[in-house]
Specification:
Strand order of the largest sheet: 1-3-2
Largest sheet: 3 strands, antiparallel
CATH topology of one domain: Multidrug-efflux Transporter Regulator, Chain: A, Domain 2
Distance between the termini: 33 Å
Radius of gyration: 17 Å
Strand content: 5-15%
Length: about 120
């Protein structure tokens, strides 16, 4: 999974959201049918376009399902509860920070590996 920070764009394609989240397109399309808060719009060509808010919701749903081990029904209830209490926005934002930091960490590790000469190599 190539975790990258959510760059500031107006719209993201489903492929870009897959790259950012590490999910497959069919998973995102299925989640759209299961979670009311996840509702990307479609452009004139009929392709899904995700806003930054939608990407944050995808990452939040992923965290609830994969890390916190909620069922789909449980995650849906949690999202409804967060929306009712007005905490959905802060939860969305909170899930992006760890994704952003893990992306930076992976990039730094790759850079370190590239810059570190193999043992026994002469300079």
């Amino acid at each position: 999974m190539d975790s990258q920070p959510v760059a500031k764009k107006v719209y993201y394609s489903i492929g870009e959201v897959c790259d950012l989240s590490g999910l497959k397109p069919h998973v995102l399309r299925y989640w759209e049918t299961q979670f009311d808060v996840l509702n990307p719009t479609k452009n004139r060509a009929g392709n899904r376009v995700y806003r930054a808010r939608d990407v944050e919701v995808v990452l939040l749903v992923k965290q609830l399902l994969y890390e916190e081990k909620y069922t789909i029904e449980g995650a849906n209830q949690k999202l409804i509860e967060l929306r009712r209490e007005g905490d959905l926005k802060s939860e969305r934002k909170g899930v992006v920070a760890p994704e952003f930091l893990s992306g930076i960490k992976e990039e730094l590790e790759e850079l370190r590996d590239l810059l570190t000469p193999p043992p026994g190599a002469s300079r």
